[in-house]
Amino acid sequence: MSDSFHGLPCWFELMSPDLDAAKAFYSGLFGWEVTDAGMEGFTYLLAKAEGTMAAGMMAVPEPGMPPFWVMYLAVTDVDAEAEAIRAQGGEVHKAPADIPGTGRFAVVADPQGAVFGLLQPLPMEGGGAQDGAGRAFDQGKAGHGNWLELQTTDQKAALGFYAGRFGWTLDHAMPMGEMGSYDVFAREGTQIGGMMPKVAPVPRPFWLVYFGVNDVAAALAGIEAQGGKVVNGPMEVPGPALVAQARDPQGGLFAVVGPKPA
Asked: Considering all CA atoms of the chain, what is the largest pairwise distance in Å, rounded to the nearest integer?
Protein backbone atom coordinates (compact mmCIF):
# COMPACT_ATOMS: atom_id res chain seq x y z
CA MET A 1 0.00 0.00 0.00
CA SER A 2 1.29 3.47 -0.86
CA ASP A 3 2.12 5.74 2.05
CA SER A 4 1.27 8.90 0.07
CA PHE A 5 -1.58 9.69 2.46
CA HIS A 6 0.38 9.15 5.70
CA GLY A 7 0.11 12.25 7.90
CA LEU A 8 -2.76 13.75 5.91
CA PRO A 9 -5.47 15.42 8.04
CA CYS A 10 -8.47 13.36 7.04
CA TRP A 11 -11.40 13.70 9.45
CA PHE A 12 -12.90 15.93 12.14
CA GLU A 13 -15.15 14.58 14.86
CA LEU A 14 -17.22 16.43 17.44
CA MET A 15 -17.89 14.82 20.80
CA SER A 16 -20.98 16.58 22.16
CA PRO A 17 -23.35 16.13 25.13
CA ASP A 18 -26.30 17.18 22.92
CA LEU A 19 -26.23 15.84 19.38
CA ASP A 20 -29.55 17.39 18.36
CA ALA A 21 -28.35 20.85 19.42
CA ALA A 22 -24.95 20.32 17.77
CA LYS A 23 -26.59 19.23 14.53
CA ALA A 24 -28.81 22.32 14.49
CA PHE A 25 -25.96 24.71 15.31
CA TYR A 26 -23.38 23.49 12.81
CA SER A 27 -25.92 22.89 10.06
CA GLY A 28 -27.08 26.47 10.45
CA LEU A 29 -23.54 27.82 10.58
CA PHE A 30 -21.83 25.86 7.81
CA GLY A 31 -24.81 24.71 5.76
CA TRP A 32 -23.96 21.09 6.51
CA GLU A 33 -26.31 18.31 5.52
CA VAL A 34 -26.26 16.01 8.54
CA THR A 35 -27.50 12.41 8.43
CA ASP A 36 -27.36 9.36 10.70
CA ALA A 37 -24.57 6.96 9.68
CA GLY A 38 -26.63 3.96 10.79
CA MET A 39 -23.94 2.61 13.14
CA GLU A 40 -25.04 -0.37 15.21
CA GLY A 41 -25.38 0.32 18.92
CA PHE A 42 -24.91 4.09 18.97
CA THR A 43 -25.69 7.27 17.07
CA TYR A 44 -23.04 8.69 14.75
CA LEU A 45 -23.88 11.66 12.55
CA LEU A 46 -22.18 12.44 9.25
CA ALA A 47 -21.96 16.00 7.93
CA LYS A 48 -21.57 16.90 4.26
CA ALA A 49 -20.61 20.28 2.85
CA GLU A 50 -21.86 20.70 -0.72
CA GLY A 51 -22.10 16.93 -1.09
CA THR A 52 -18.64 16.09 0.26
CA MET A 53 -17.98 14.50 3.65
CA ALA A 54 -16.75 17.11 6.12
CA ALA A 55 -17.14 15.88 9.72
CA GLY A 56 -18.74 13.48 12.17
CA MET A 57 -20.57 13.93 15.46
CA MET A 58 -21.17 11.57 18.36
CA ALA A 59 -22.05 11.74 22.05
CA VAL A 60 -19.29 12.37 24.59
CA PRO A 61 -17.92 9.03 25.88
CA GLU A 62 -18.73 9.82 29.52
CA PRO A 63 -21.52 11.88 31.15
CA GLY A 64 -20.30 15.29 32.24
CA MET A 65 -17.36 15.33 29.83
CA PRO A 66 -17.04 18.70 28.06
CA PRO A 67 -17.52 18.80 24.28
CA PHE A 68 -14.46 18.82 22.05
CA TRP A 69 -13.34 18.43 18.43
CA VAL A 70 -10.90 15.66 17.47
CA MET A 71 -8.83 15.86 14.30
CA TYR A 72 -7.71 12.62 12.66
CA LEU A 73 -4.54 11.90 10.70
CA ALA A 74 -4.40 9.17 8.07
CA VAL A 75 -1.77 6.48 8.67
CA THR A 76 -0.64 3.34 6.88
CA ASP A 77 -0.66 1.09 9.98
CA VAL A 78 -2.73 2.31 12.93
CA ASP A 79 -1.62 -0.48 15.30
CA ALA A 80 2.08 0.18 14.72
CA GLU A 81 1.57 3.95 14.91
CA ALA A 82 -0.32 3.80 18.20
CA GLU A 83 2.38 1.61 19.74
CA ALA A 84 5.14 3.92 18.47
CA ILE A 85 3.38 6.95 19.95
CA ARG A 86 3.10 5.19 23.31
CA ALA A 87 6.80 4.30 23.15
CA GLN A 88 7.67 7.96 22.56
CA GLY A 89 5.84 9.09 25.69
CA GLY A 90 2.38 9.64 24.24
CA GLU A 91 -0.85 7.98 25.34
CA VAL A 92 -3.35 5.64 23.68
CA HIS A 93 -6.82 6.67 24.85
CA LYS A 94 -8.71 4.37 22.50
CA ALA A 95 -6.97 1.22 21.33
CA PRO A 96 -7.05 0.44 17.60
CA ALA A 97 -10.41 -0.90 16.45
CA ASP A 98 -12.23 -1.46 13.17
CA ILE A 99 -14.93 0.79 11.70
CA PRO A 100 -16.92 -1.35 9.25
CA GLY A 101 -16.63 -0.01 5.72
CA THR A 102 -14.24 2.79 6.73
CA GLY A 103 -10.99 1.45 8.15
CA ARG A 104 -9.24 1.10 11.48
CA PHE A 105 -8.88 3.90 14.02
CA ALA A 106 -7.39 4.87 17.37
CA VAL A 107 -7.42 7.94 19.62
CA VAL A 108 -4.05 8.99 21.03
CA ALA A 109 -2.23 11.93 22.62
CA ASP A 110 1.18 13.35 21.81
CA PRO A 111 3.90 13.45 24.53
CA GLN A 112 2.68 16.90 25.65
CA GLY A 113 -0.91 15.65 26.01
CA ALA A 114 -2.72 16.97 22.90
CA VAL A 115 -5.37 14.45 21.81
CA PHE A 116 -5.86 13.47 18.17
CA GLY A 117 -7.07 10.50 16.15
CA LEU A 118 -5.46 8.04 13.75
CA LEU A 119 -7.27 6.47 10.80
CA GLN A 120 -6.00 3.66 8.60
CA PRO A 121 -8.44 4.05 5.70
CA LEU A 122 -9.85 1.33 3.53
CA PRO A 123 -9.47 1.95 -0.21
CA MET A 124 -12.63 3.40 -1.67
CA GLU A 125 -14.39 1.72 -4.58
CA GLY A 126 -12.67 2.74 -7.80
CA GLY A 127 -9.87 4.54 -5.93
CA GLY A 128 -6.87 3.98 -3.72
CA ALA A 129 -6.14 4.53 -0.08
CA GLN A 130 -5.69 8.24 -0.70
CA ASP A 131 -9.38 8.39 -1.60
CA GLY A 132 -10.19 6.32 1.47
CA ALA A 133 -8.49 8.97 3.61
CA GLY A 134 -11.33 11.29 2.68
CA ARG A 135 -11.57 14.92 1.69
CA ALA A 136 -12.64 16.48 4.99
CA PHE A 137 -9.50 18.66 4.98
CA ASP A 138 -9.83 20.88 1.92
CA GLN A 139 -8.28 24.33 2.11
CA GLY A 140 -10.22 25.47 -0.94
CA LYS A 141 -13.73 24.74 0.36
CA ALA A 142 -16.01 26.39 2.88
CA GLY A 143 -17.48 24.05 5.48
CA HIS A 144 -14.34 21.89 5.49
CA GLY A 145 -11.31 21.89 7.72
CA ASN A 146 -8.94 24.53 6.31
CA TRP A 147 -6.24 24.89 8.99
CA LEU A 148 -4.95 23.12 12.11
CA GLU A 149 -3.52 24.79 15.20
CA LEU A 150 -1.71 23.16 18.09
CA GLN A 151 -1.46 25.00 21.38
CA THR A 152 1.29 23.22 23.28
CA THR A 153 3.67 23.53 26.21
CA ASP A 154 6.76 22.67 24.11
CA GLN A 155 6.71 23.68 20.44
CA LYS A 156 10.17 22.32 19.66
CA ALA A 157 9.38 18.90 21.09
CA ALA A 158 5.95 18.85 19.43
CA LEU A 159 7.36 19.71 16.01
CA GLY A 160 9.98 17.00 16.41
CA PHE A 161 7.31 14.46 17.32
CA TYR A 162 4.98 15.24 14.40
CA ALA A 163 7.89 15.54 11.97
CA GLY A 164 9.20 12.14 12.97
CA ARG A 165 5.86 10.38 12.98
CA PHE A 166 4.08 12.09 10.07
CA GLY A 167 6.73 13.83 7.99
CA TRP A 168 5.61 17.38 8.70
CA THR A 169 8.21 20.13 8.34
CA LEU A 170 8.66 23.63 9.72
CA ASP A 171 7.78 26.09 6.97
CA HIS A 172 8.54 29.29 8.86
CA ALA A 173 8.21 30.90 12.28
CA MET A 174 6.39 34.19 12.89
CA PRO A 175 7.50 36.19 15.96
CA MET A 176 4.72 36.99 18.45
CA GLY A 177 6.66 39.18 20.85
CA GLU A 178 6.71 38.00 24.45
CA MET A 179 4.48 35.05 23.51
CA GLY A 180 7.24 33.48 21.44
CA SER A 181 6.59 32.36 17.87
CA TYR A 182 3.85 30.93 15.68
CA ASP A 183 5.48 27.99 13.90
CA VAL A 184 3.81 27.25 10.57
CA PHE A 185 4.23 23.63 9.47
CA ALA A 186 3.77 21.97 6.12
CA ARG A 187 2.99 18.57 4.68
CA GLU A 188 4.67 17.79 1.36
CA GLY A 189 5.37 21.49 0.87
CA THR A 190 1.83 22.73 1.60
CA GLN A 191 1.20 24.79 4.73
CA ILE A 192 -1.51 23.06 6.77
CA GLY A 193 -1.25 24.52 10.27
CA GLY A 194 0.64 26.22 13.05
CA MET A 195 1.96 25.56 16.53
CA MET A 196 2.02 28.13 19.34
CA PRO A 197 2.38 28.33 23.12
CA LYS A 198 -0.75 27.26 24.99
CA VAL A 199 -2.72 30.34 25.98
CA ALA A 200 -6.32 29.08 26.13
CA PRO A 201 -7.62 28.36 29.67
CA VAL A 202 -7.75 24.60 29.22
CA PRO A 203 -5.84 22.07 31.35
CA ARG A 204 -3.73 20.50 28.61
CA PRO A 205 -2.36 21.15 25.11
CA PHE A 206 -4.93 20.72 22.34
CA TRP A 207 -5.59 20.83 18.61
CA LEU A 208 -7.93 23.53 17.30
CA VAL A 209 -9.71 23.03 13.97
CA TYR A 210 -10.31 26.01 11.67
CA PHE A 211 -13.29 25.54 9.35
CA GLY A 212 -13.46 27.55 6.15
CA VAL A 213 -16.21 30.12 5.60
CA ASN A 214 -16.89 32.52 2.74
CA ASP A 215 -17.69 35.47 5.01
CA VAL A 216 -16.17 35.63 8.50
CA ALA A 217 -18.35 38.53 9.67
CA ALA A 218 -21.52 36.65 8.67
CA ALA A 219 -20.24 33.48 10.34
CA LEU A 220 -19.57 35.31 13.61
CA ALA A 221 -23.03 36.88 13.53
CA GLY A 222 -24.49 33.42 12.95
CA ILE A 223 -22.53 31.95 15.86
CA GLU A 224 -23.87 34.58 18.27
CA ALA A 225 -27.42 34.38 16.88
CA GLN A 226 -27.52 30.62 17.47
CA GLY A 227 -26.32 30.80 21.07
CA GLY A 228 -22.60 30.32 20.51
CA LYS A 229 -19.90 32.73 21.66
CA VAL A 230 -17.04 34.39 19.81
CA VAL A 231 -14.04 34.22 22.16
CA ASN A 232 -11.30 35.81 20.03
CA GLY A 233 -11.24 37.81 16.81
CA PRO A 234 -11.80 38.49 14.09
CA MET A 235 -8.14 39.20 13.33
CA GLU A 236 -6.20 39.47 10.11
CA VAL A 237 -3.55 36.87 9.31
CA PRO A 238 -1.21 36.41 6.33
CA GLY A 239 -3.04 35.36 3.19
CA PRO A 240 -4.63 37.81 3.69
CA ALA A 241 -7.42 36.20 5.66
CA LEU A 242 -9.55 36.71 8.75
CA VAL A 243 -9.74 34.21 11.60
CA ALA A 244 -11.74 33.93 14.82
CA GLN A 245 -12.17 31.40 17.60
CA ALA A 246 -15.55 30.53 19.07
CA ARG A 247 -17.49 28.10 21.24
CA ASP A 248 -20.67 26.34 20.21
CA PRO A 249 -23.70 26.52 22.58
CA GLN A 250 -22.48 23.43 24.47
CA GLY A 251 -18.96 24.90 24.87
CA GLY A 252 -17.08 23.10 22.09
CA LEU A 253 -14.11 25.18 20.91
CA PHE A 254 -13.57 25.67 17.16
CA ALA A 255 -12.39 28.36 14.77
CA VAL A 256 -13.29 29.85 11.40
CA VAL A 257 -11.11 31.24 8.62
CA GLY A 258 -12.15 33.13 5.50
CA PRO A 259 -10.97 35.68 2.96
CA LYS A 260 -10.33 39.26 3.96
CA PRO A 261 -13.00 41.49 2.37
CA ALA A 262 -11.73 43.58 -0.54
From this structure: 52
